[in-house]
Structure prediction request, 226 residues.
Amino acid sequence: ELKVEQNPLFLSMQEGKNYTIYCNYSTTSDRLYWYRQDPGKSLESLFVLLSNGAVKQEGRLMASLDTKARLSTLHITAAVHDLSATYFCANHGGAGNMLTFGGGTRLMVKP
Amino acid sequence: DTAVSQTPKYLVTQMGNDKSIKCEQNLGHDTMYWYKQDSKKFLKIMFSYNNKELIINETVPNRFSPKSPDKAHLNLHINSLELGDSAVYFCASSQVRISISNEQFFGPGTRLTVL
Prediction:
């Protein structure tokens, strides 16, 4: 059974600080996804990582994938309040293109 | 235009009732999905469906059944609702090809409350 683990599950940080969210998964997979969810809202796609060594950046967020270590990271640079949300990683390794999600990281950025 | 839409947004019902949630996508995708998000925010796949194949997560009770009248719609029917079915249900869709990202796009969610 494919397992996806995120840590930390909760992260409170000050504006301007840097931090990294980690996503470990249990089986080989060619794709890793990061999503953002605001309270009471849907999931918004942030990054799709398709190969070992892939790195993508959008604003203050940067995601990377190491398929050999079965690890993806989401790095936050100089956090701002607007980044407060829950971030999910998901691994595409099941039948039918189904995604297995990590438990989510709830990020709170304090002014 | 909304890419993936769901109705209703909120659904409150009694235990034992049967209910349906509708999902439509206008992205021309060939695969649609249903996910359940519980009160702790854990997301779990329930079904994956394209016009050829339905794949069911083995943990889903058979009271849940997806119904697809056409490629753009995948409705979720739930029989004999139980308290534990209370959750937010998300529909999603993607275009499945080996050479592309297969990125899934999510609907706004339906919050189901069973009393």
About this structure: Chain A touches chain B through 26 residues (CB under 8 Å). The CA atoms of residues 52 and 68 of chain A lie 7 Å apart. The longest strand of chain A covers residues 85-92. The mean pLDDT of chain A is 92.
